Amino acid sequence: MLAALAGGVGAARFLAGLVQCVDPSEITVVGNTGDDEEFFGLHVSPDLDSITYTLAGASNTEQGWGLEGESFRTMHALTRYGEPNWFNLGDLDLATHIFRTRRMRGDGATLAEVTADVAAAWKLDLHLLPMTNDSVRTRITCARSDGTREVLAMQEWFVRERAEPAVLQVDFDGAGTARPAPGVLDALDRADTIVICPSNPIISIGPILAIPGVRDALVRRRDRVVAVCPIIDGAPVRGPADRLMAPLGVEVSPAGVARHYREFCATLVIDERDAAHAEAVRAAGVRPVVTETLMRSPQIAAELAQCTLAAVA
């Protein structure tokens, strides 16, 4: 059995490689929900949906989010009424959010139950779990150019503000009293290998670790935990990880990721371009494994997944 902590596009691409070399029914994915927000009265779960669409072969690979062949006529129509359109929801994607919201509000279903329904509808064989059924929201305290501070929801900072405001602090509202979704801790306790996908350490993996019990479970299983570094040659492959890591004192390098994860992670897979950082990773108390991590094709993603599993086995 295999467990994976995941959030965002990088994780989705890695998981698409993972299911090529492991029976999907043996995989449990714990997805980040700190990015979840409500738009137009609908509950949107960006990371869970990115994973679902990618594994179903339906994602917009060029855009990096949403569905292939998407249109945005509803969003364009909403602007007629003065509604904000900075968070673009496609017409096909809206069906997922409408279904999720109706099930949760109308039927009283939990987020985990709805996530399972969505995964089944897309014919996914792996087990996709939200980190929690409770409301946990990532909030970013930023410094404005006039010297004032402002607290933004993660999507406001990342999408509306284009990750430009300087980051001072990141909090996960509600995490302290949240409970792991049913099955999360059991999957971490039973897994032969636990993979931390190549995701933003601060706002993709951080919220999952903030759920009581999750970090402790990883610490107990440290020797079986392997992470794939999301940093290559001093920068994230995509996304704003560097704009979050550096201000919070995490070096934007494989060594920085190793030090950030070392309490609960024994092995870090780093890109061959960063081979010179291997000794610094080792000095942080984490075993480095050097390979190609830039997933330019499904074949490379599968080879990366195989190397990651072999690093623990």
Written overview of the protein:
It is a single chain. The protein is an alpha/beta fold and 313 residues long. Helices cover 38% and strands 20% of the residues. The chain has helices at 8-18, 46-55, 73-79, 91-106, 111-121, 154-160, 184-190, 201-210, 214-220, 241-245, 254-261, 278-283, 298-312, and strands at 2-6, 27-31, 37-39, 42-44, 127-130, 137-143, 149-153, 166-173, 193-196, 225-228, 231-232, 235-236, 267-271, 287-291. The chain has a seven-stranded parallel beta sheet, with helices on both faces. Strands 7-6-8 form a three-stranded antiparallel beta sheet. It has a two-stranded antiparallel ribbon with strand order 3-4. 45% of the residues are buried. The model has no long low-confidence stretch (mean pLDDT 96).
Mean pLDDT: 96
Helix content range of the residues, please? Answer: 25-40%
Provide the spatial order of strands within the biggest beta sheet.
Answer: 5-2-1-9-10-13-14
Q: How would a crystallographer describe the biggest sheet?
A: 7 strands, parallel
Indicate the proportion of strand residues: 15-25%
Counted by DSSP, the helix tally is 13
Q: What class would the helix/strand composition place it in?
A: alpha/beta
Overall shape: globular
Low-confidence residue ranges:
none
Sketch the topology as an H/E string, one letter per element. EHEEEHHHHEEEHEHEHHEEEHHEHEH
Taking all Cα atoms into account, the compactness measure Rg is 19 Å
N-end to C-end Cα span = 12 Å
Q: Number of DSSP strands? A: 14
